[in-house]
Amino acid sequence: MQPQLVDALARDLAAAGHTGEGIRALLGDAADAALARSVAAPARRAALRSPGPSSTLLRALVLGDTVPTDELADALPALGVEGAVALGLVEVAGDRALPAAVIRPYAFQDALGAGEWWIASDLDELAGRSPLRDDHVLGVGGAARTLAALLPPAAAPVADALDLGTGCGVIALHLRRFADRVVATDVSERALRFAELNARLNGVDGIETRLGSLFEPVEGERFDLIASNPPFVITPRAPGVPAFEYRDGGRTGDGLMAEVVRGLGDHLRRGGQARLLGNWETIGGEGGLARVDGWERSGLDLWAIEREELDPVRYAELWLRDGGTLPRDPAFAPLAGAWLDDFEARGVRAIGMGWLAARRGGAGALRRFERVPQRVALEHVGAHLARALDDAAWLAETDDEELGLARLVVAPDVTEARHQLPGASGPNVIELVQGGGLERTLSVDTALAALVGACDGELPLGVLIGAIAALLEVDEAVLAADLLPRVRELVVTGFLARL
Ligand SMILES: C[S@@+](CC[C@H](N)C(=O)[O-])C[C@H]1O[C@@H](n2cnc3c(N)ncnc32)[C@H](O)[C@@H]1O
């Protein structure tokens, strides 16, 4: 990286208004929204109608269009065309500049507020590159946005964090908002160059890049937080099947995920947490979540949240499309065949896709392996997972007698819904409905509904259970034995909170 050139680029991008807001102003709402859906034509049309630096940068650095070199020189007065070539952003052929990378504004919001970064990455399909090169460096996609949302709230600072498989470095940038120091690793030298460029471009220091596979570059080191959107895509090892570096870790099946989980325990500090995205296979009679439960993970609490399960055909189709091969392309049938052969040969019946949250040192406090298929607003999830893992550790150290002394409050996002058959004297179904967290709906009985309703932090749980037992005319000890395990579940799932 050449820091002076990157600084000049940052000045040019800012001066030209190469920001989300600047681009929206240039394109208008409809073309801007189309661009967000990866439909480029309306944006190109709008940009060509308003020539100038902003339009040139949009065409070259967002859409990947060839532009005249004199226009690019006008748009990059501090960097110059030569500087853009030196940074690997364009190549020059005659009087035309051919983009070699994109730089797109990426807006985000976290507990510290709203922000925007410029993220440079390889030319992708939106920028006219299809199929992708094998060593493609990914820009910010849905997966990175999801992982960013799973991170603990930025308001809780940590000393150091690790981004495993950093790619363009966007997760490292997020981590640096609340970590004093971030180590960002990748097997791809090109990815690390992009990550370094992006950190400098956005004026972010304290991110150290390291080349190497999985935990090799951080041998013997521990972190407060580990985040990874690892190359989890299950790819057949067959001749002619491209192994895209950005998504394929080169292992068989879901072996890479198991390796990452195994490594977490050796690289997290006590109390440290991890967030991963991942895929896992259902093989023969063993379901995917049971398989994740079976992965070696000494000293680690683990929570697997399966958001979706695909059959092998849909899985192959998803990743073939992602790599730029469509069902109408001649290559589709042989490639899909290789995927299905691999799944068949290994007895894979389905592939789960989801999130993993881990914490070291809870003495097995949390083992949750569950499907959460409902729509979930991502902005609540990071804080929810962090709190749930800490609460699970607290619950593991708290026996029922101590729990009976605790004062709990019902979470502010919880409402109660009562459903009653017409003419019935009381509710047939009582549900607790969560507005945040994982947006769960839970059927409860009268006693638990009464207990949750009474949890306002004033009286200890044991006193409340005693009063409910008297009201329902049941034995207090029996009621406590029935309710307390369910209270534990309500604490971990965020319906009830500690004061
Ligand atoms: C799915 S991308 C994630 C990139 C970025 N963190 C994000 O969320 O957009 C996975 C990254 O892992 C890298 N990678 C592939 N194999 C790896 C390995 N064995 N060890 C470390 N990183 C690897 C790829 O080069 C790629 O940058």
Provide a quick synopsis of the model.
This protein has helices spanning 3-15, 20-27, 29-36, 41-49, 53-62, 69-75, 80-86, 142-150, 170-176, 189-201, 255-267, 288-294, 312-322, 332-345, 381-396, 400-405, 446-454, 461-472, 476-492, and strands spanning 67-68, 90-93, 96-99, 101-110, 113-122, 158-164, 179-186, 207-211, 223-228, 268-283, 300-310, 348-360, 367-371, 408-410, 414-419, 429-434, 441-444, 496-498. With 499 residues, it is an alpha/beta fold. An eight-stranded mixed sheet has the order 8-7-6-9-10-12-11-13, with helices on both faces.
Name the shape in a single word.
globular
Major β-sheet profile: 8 strands, mixed
Helix content: 25-40%
Radius of gyration: 26 Å
Distance between the termini: 49 Å
Q: List cofactors, ions and other ligands.
A: S-adenosylmethionine
Q: Name the strands of the widest sheet in spatial order.
A: 8-7-6-9-10-12-11-13
Strand segment count? 18
- The share of residues in extended strands comes to 15-25%
State the secondary-structure class: alpha/beta
The pLDDT mean sits at 95
Number of helices: 19
Low-confidence stretches: none
